[in-house]
Amino acid sequence: MTVAGEQYNPFAAPAIEQSDEVLPNPADPTDFTVRDEILICGPRLLLPAVCWKTGLTEDLEPVQFRVQRASFRLQTSPVEVQTFISRQRSKQEERRGIRLSLLAVVGVLMFVLPLLFNSPGLTGVQVLWRIVVMLAGGITTGIAGMLMTGGLPVVQRYRAPGLHYVRGLPSALVAQLRLVEAKRRRRDLAGDRVVVG
């Protein structure tokens, strides 16, 4: 089969199409790429002055946290994030943390106290009541623990050496990061970025 004077070779290597997908430099903590709702970054990430919970850009204070891996594989380290949070949101998070800690303490007490005051000669109803209180305490502690850790972003997958794919970021932050990335790309199409082909 000929196409415009060229002969078809079934054994030729397939043509490689270049894509404009740009991956960040893992050594630069300020370099990141946003694809869909996923942030691609290195093991350290310095985010711009944007609240990581709400996307606000005013009345901010610095905050640091770690984004843990979503699976049980221990091959990669978590992503160290240095970012900002609005002062109002910070106070809300602090109050929420105190409430959930108190809820967890109540749950533990509900679970432990029936075990401590175990007296012989209990009737069937009293034993059943203690079991119900212990189960309620265990469930309360579990729910408080899930609420304390829930809502944090996680490293979804790991593709290239030093690159982490983080999901679970608030959509307001992702929108702000897209704007920052677009400005940075317009400013310079740096030579130290890796173009995937």
- Distance linking N and C termini: 28 Å
Strand count, sense and barrel status of the largest sheet are: 4 strands, antiparallel
According to DSSP, the number of beta strands is 11
Using the alpha-carbon principal axes, give the shape: elongated
In the sheet with the most strands, the strands line up as 4-5-10-9
Strand content is 15-25%
- Tell me roughly what share of residues is in helical segments: 25-40%
What does this structure look like?
The protein has about 200 residues and is α+β, with helices and mostly antiparallel strands. The chain has one domain (about 15-185). The chain has 3 helices and 11 strands, in the order ββββββββααββαβ. The strands form 4 sheets. The chain has a 4-stranded antiparallel β-sheet with strand order 4-5-10-9. It has a 3-stranded mixed β-sheet with strand order 6-8-7. The protein has a two-stranded antiparallel ribbon with strand order 1-2. A hairpin with a 5-residue loop joins β9 (about 155-160) and β10. α1 runs antiparallel to α2 (about 125-150). The radius of gyration is 26 Å and the shape is elongated. The model has no long low-confidence stretch (mean pLDDT about 75).
